[in-house]
Amino acid sequence: MILNQLLVSNPDLASGIFLIKTSLDFKYAHIQLWSWGWIFIILMAVVDVIVVYWRLVRRYHQMQLRHIINELHYIADGHFNHRIPFQLKGQMQRVVASVNALVDSTIKAMEDEREIERSKDELITNVSHDIRTPLTSIIGYLGLIEDKQYRSEEDILKYTHTAYLKSKQMKSLVDDLFEYTKVRQTDAPLQIQSLELNAMLEQIGASFELEANKKGMEINTILPDSPVKIEADPEKLARVFNNLITNALKYGSDGKNIYLQLTKVDEKEIEIRISNDGEPIPEKSLRQVFDRFYRVESSRSKETGGTGLGLAIAQSIIELHHGYIYVESNKNLTSFIMRLPIKHDNVVKKS
Questions:
Q1: Which of 166-175's residues contact partners 24+ apart within 8 Å by CB, and which partners?
Q2: What domain count does the chain have?
Q3: Cα 32 to the chain's mean position, in Å?
Q4: Which of 70-74, 109-113, 266-270 has the highest mean pLDDT?
Q5: What is the CATH classification number for the domain harbouring 147?
Q6: Residue ending a domain, choose from 156, 184, 212
Q7: Residue pair 240/318 in contact by the 8 Å Cβ criterion
Q8: Residue 212: which of 159, 311, 263, 278 has the closest Cα?
Q9: Where are the beta strands (DSSP E) in the chain?
Q10: In the record, what terms sit under GO molecular function (predicted)?
Q11: What pTM, to 2 d.p., does this model score?
Q12: Whose CA is closest to 311, among 285, 333, 280, 330?
C-alpha cells in the first residue's frame, strides 16, 4: 500500500524501478527475478545487516568499558602506580586518556596532602626543639635564683641577664614563625608602592655599619648613578635585606667586607646582590639553605643562634613579589642574588 502511494506520487521513481526490473529479467528463461517482494526482502536484509553490525559494535564498546572499569577497580585497590594500558580508537581512547589523567591528578593530590602533613609534623618537631632549648635555660637560671643558689648579687645579675637573652631568642623564634606563616600564604597582602631602591639600600647599609665595625667588617654599597624605582612592599623587602645582611654578619664574620649591589638588568627587571667574603657555603648545602630550619653544619659549631627561618622567609617574600632568589658561593665570595620585576604585575622568569 505504501509502495503504491510512493509510485503514484513520484512517476520518476516508478520509471526507474521499471528499468531496473526489466534489466534483471531472464529473457530466455522467462523467469522474472525482480518483484516488489524481492525489493522488500533485500531491504530487510540490509536492515538486518545494519542492526547486527550496530549490536556487534555496541557489544564491543561494552566489553571495552568493562575492561576499563576492571582496571579502575584494580587501581582503587591500592595499585596506584598502575595505569590503563589500552590503545583504543576514537572516543574510547579519549576516555582512557581522561581516566589516566584523573588518576595522575588524584595521586598527586594525595602525595601533596601527605607532604603537607609531613611538613606540619616536622614544623612542630623543630619548633618544639627550638623553644625547649632556651626555655630549659630560663627555667634553670631562674630556679637557681628561686632556690637562692647564688653567691653574690653579680651571680643574680648574670643569671637574669642570661634568662633575658634566652627570652629574646624565644621571642625571635615566635616572630619568625609568625612572619613565615604569613608570607607562605599565596594570598598574603602586600602594601605595594613606588620605592626607590638606591636610598633604601643606603639606609639599610648604614643601619648595620656599627655592628659590622665591631666585627671588623665594612659594608659597601654599589649603586647605579641614576635612581632605580620599583613597585614593592617596602616593609617586606626591608625584612629580606635585613635577614641577608644579618646572615652575612653572622656566618661571614671571618671576612672583611659585605657588599650591597644594585643593577638594573633592563626596563622590566632589577638585580640585587648581597655578598660577603667570609667562609663559603659548602656545595652540598647550597640547595638546602632556603629550607626552613636548615642551618649549614659549619655554622652550628659557631653557636651563631638564629631560627633557621630567615632565608625561608626571604625566599617567600621575593616570590610574593613575582621574583626569585638564589645563592652562589666560592672561596672568594658568597652572594645571595635576587631578581625582581620593576612593575609588580610582571613576573620574572628564572634564567
A1: 166/134, 166/135, 166/137, 166/138, 166/141, 167/134, 167/138, 169/134, 169/305, 170/131, 170/134, 170/135, 170/138, 172/307, 173/127, 173/130, 173/131, 173/307, 173/309
A2: 2
A3: 81
A4: 266-270
A5: 1.10.287.130
A6: 184
A7: yes
A8: 278
A9: 193-196, 218-222, 229-232, 257-264, 269-276, 324-329, 334-341
A10: ATP binding; phosphorelay sensor kinase activity
A11: 0.59
A12: 285
SS3 state at 338: strand
Q: Are 267 and 342 in contact (CB under 8 A)?
A: yes
CA separation, residue 63 to residues 56, 68, 212 (Å): 10, 9, 77
**Does 252 lie in the same domain as 330?**
yes
Residue 267 lies in a domain: yes
- Interval 108-119: pLDDT, tens: 888 888 877 877
**Rounded CA gap, 190 and 193, in Å?**
9
Q: Which 3 state secondary structure label does DSSP give 191? A: coil
State whether 169 and 298 are in the same domain.
Answer: no
Among residues 135, 152, 184, the one where a domain terminates is 184
Tell which wins on pLDDT, 39 or 167. 167
Mean pLDDT of all residues in 62-77: 79
> CA 337 to CA 41: how far, in whole Å?
86
Q: What is the DSSP string of 80-133?
A: TT--------HHHHHHHHHHHHHHHHHHHHHHHHHHHHHHHHHHHHHHHHHHHH
Residue 283 is classified by DSSP as G
Residue 159 domain-assigned?
yes
**Residue 211 CB partners (closer than 8 Å, separation 6+):** 249
* Residue 153, C-alpha cell as written in the block: 648579687
* Contact predicate 14/39, CB 8 Å: no
Check whether 130 has a pLDDT greater than 80.
no
Residues spanned by the domain of 222: 193-341
Q: What residues does 338 pair with on adjacent strands? A: 272, 325
Angle, vertex CA 333, rays to CA 255 and CA 254, nearest 5 = 15
- The cell for 132 is 625547649
| CA distances for 85 relative to 81, 99, 235, angstroms | 12, 11, 54
